[in-house]
Write a structure and sequence with these properties.
By secondary structure, the chain is α/β, with parallel strands linked by helices. It folds into two domains: 244 residues, Glutaconate Coenzyme A-transferase (3-Layer(aba) Sandwich); 253 residues, Glutaconate Coenzyme A-transferase. It has 14 helices and 33 strands. The strands form ten sheets. It has an eight-stranded mixed sheet, sandwiched between helices. Strands 6-5-2-1-10-13-15 form a seven-stranded parallel sheet. Helix 9 links the parallel strand 16 and strand 17. The protein is globular, with a radius of gyration of 24 Å.
């Protein structure tokens, strides 16, 4: 009988040269950092395995850990033959890997998270790839960049996106090599390898990784866990991956501050609130009223209007940055039972953690696997989303993060933005050092940001205004001083903040002139101290 519980060295020694390796991980959450470390160590000592192609549904990395260490190896050994390429939705938490990609030392591709989670299932089913409207008219479209991040990717085309037409309608077909190996993480394994995830922050796509690898002849699954129990100690309904699908189990040491081999997130080794074992009860203090909070308030005001239009509570996704502040406004206004927040990694309700801890939540009432979450997003089962933006142009195209020398990847943004029927982009009107005061129920600009965000042409199109119009999306661009909407004619200015001069503070700070018809004043409550009274509005709607 094959020994299932082995050392990390013995497990990774089973990975063959030229393998396609799928690795779980959402930043630090679910990332098998111990297995990745030993994989690197084995290559350095033996030269094997080599010529690997690595795929993930997000990124198993934070600075100095996981794939960021792989990036460091590539930079230190430019002629290395350890890894030949990556297909990742996000590179933002792996600065060393970003450098290696930008220096064209390894081929690199990027697809949205939701597309990769669907692709894992197509790999398991044996179908050619993922067919989707997501990505049309953006940098992922083969008529633009095709998801290629550097010259090596354009030359080799290991992962490719094709445009196809079915019944007169455009789609993109996403294709990549199917995985031979899956490296995944769980909390507990029993004697036959059944895996449970009770201490993890999320489920991610762990089962989908396993399905994809085992559909391949001779597919190999290696799981990193914290502990081992006897058969029967894991409740059958708590088993996420059945043991017969797992080839090897490696027990990782409980992470130290230096190792972080199995931390829940980048900041937490083990927090029972994150795993949902302890209720989230923390005294809440409303954030001070700032220009950023005013933007978040305007978004929440739109969500309350939506509750009125639909006559029921709504399901919403909030992106990182200023949109995430809307969660604080929702809490302050006591709207939690009217606005159900979701995080792309799977949590429902509660409050999403930020920065390198993003993906985890506290106070959530449910967690579903990430592939299921993105099915809901892409299929339009949510009511609205609020996402950040870096640039907007006259056609309503949005670039959320890309700049020369900056290579984060699209993350979940494209799927959420194209799937949601309503998209409320939220951010500062300008960028850079700025000083603004929210006082006397208005906005006063002391020092404006020197960087223009409403530009003639965005650097990379990650959200296509033209395709959003075709799909009938309701799209707003919310800033602290002005609100715009997307129309058939492009971007139209519809509101400005009290205290703002239209020509001096808005139009003169844009590289294009929006359509201007009827411009109203933004709701003054947004800029006034104290609650806005939105719960009372929501209650009136429900009682109708």
């Amino acid at each position: 009988m094959i020994r299932k519980f082995v050392s990390a060295w013995e497990a990774v020694s089973r990975i063959p040269d030229n393998a396609v390796v799928a690795i779980s991980g959402f930043n630090a959450a679910l990332s098998p950092f111990y297995l990745i470390d030993v994989l690197i160590q084995r290559y350095r000592e033996t030269g094997h395995p080599k010529n690997l192609f690595i795929i993930s549904d997000a990124i198993p990395a934070i600075p100095g850990f996981g794939l960021d260490k792989v990036g460091r190896l590539i930079l230190e050994e430019p002629g290395q033959d350890f890894v030949r390429g990556f297909l990742l939705p996000f590179y933002g938490w792996a600065p060393e890997l970003q450098k290696a990609v930008m220096e064209n030392l390894v081929e690199a591709y990027t697809w949205p998270i939701g597309i990769v989670t669907r692709w894992l299932r197509t790999a398991a089913l044996g179908t050619p790839g993922v067919l989707s409207r997501v990505g049309l008219g953006t940098f992922i479209d083969p008529r633009q960049d095709g998801g290629f991040l550097n010259g090596l990717a354009r030359e080799r085309r290991t992962a490719a996106v094709e445009r196809v037409v079915l019944d007169g309608r455009e789609y993109l077909l996403y294709k990549a090599p199917k995985p031979d190996v899956a490296l995944v993480r769980a909390t507990t394994a029993d004697e036959i390898g059944n895996l449970s995830m009770e201490q993890e922050a999320m489920y991610g796509s762990v089962l989908a990784f396993v399905q994809a690898a085992k559909a391949h002849p001779g597919g190999l699954v290696i799981a990193q866990v914290l502990r081992v129990v006897t058969l029967g100690e894991i409740h059958p309904k708590h088993v996420v991956v059945p043991g017969p699908l797992v080839d090897y189990v490696v027990v990782a040491r409980r992470g130290t501050e230096v190792e972080k081999y199995h931390w829940q997130t980048a900041s937490f080794d083990l927090n029972p609130i994150i795993s949902g074992d302890v209720p989230y009860r923390v005294a809440y203090e409303p954030a001070p009223l700032t220009a950023d909070k005013a933007v978040a308030r305007r978004v929440v005001l739109e969500l309350v209007k939506l509750i009125g239009a639909l006559g029921r509570p709504v399901v919403v996704n909030l992106g990182i940055g200023i949109p995430a502040l809307a969660a604080d406004v929702i809490r302050e206004e006591r709207l939690d039972d009217f606005i159900h927040l979701t995080v792309e990694s799977g949590p429902w309700g509660g409050y999403a953690l930020m920065d390198a801890d993003f993906g985890a939540a506290m106070g959530h009432y449910a967690v579903i696997p990430m592939p299921e979450q993105f099915v809901l997003y892409e299929g339009g089962a949510i009511d609205a989303t609020s996402l950040g933006f870096l640039q907007v142009d006259a056609e309503g195209n949005v670039n959320p993060a890309f700049l020369p020398g900056r290579l984060p990847g699209p993350g979940g943004f494209p799927v959420i933005a194209i799937g949601s029927p309503r998209v409320y982009f939220a951010g500062g009107f300008t960028a850079g050092r700025r000083k603004m005061d929210v006082k006397n129920c208005g906005l006063a600009i002391g020092e404006d940001g020197p960087i223009t965000k409403f530009v003639a042409k965005v650097y990379k199109i990650v959200f296509s205004g033209r395709y959003a119009v075709e799909e009938g999306k309701e799209v707003l661009y919310v800033t602290e001083r002005a609100v715009f909407k997307l129309t058939q004619d492009g971007v139209e200015l519809v509101e400005i903040a009290p205290g703002i001069d239209l020509e001096r503070d808005v139009l003169a700070k844009m590289e294009f002139r929006p359509t201007v018809r009827r411009v109203e004043e933004m709701d003054r409550r947004i800029f006034c101290e104290g609650k806005m009274g939105l719960r009372e509005e929501a209650l009136k709607i429900v009682k109708r």
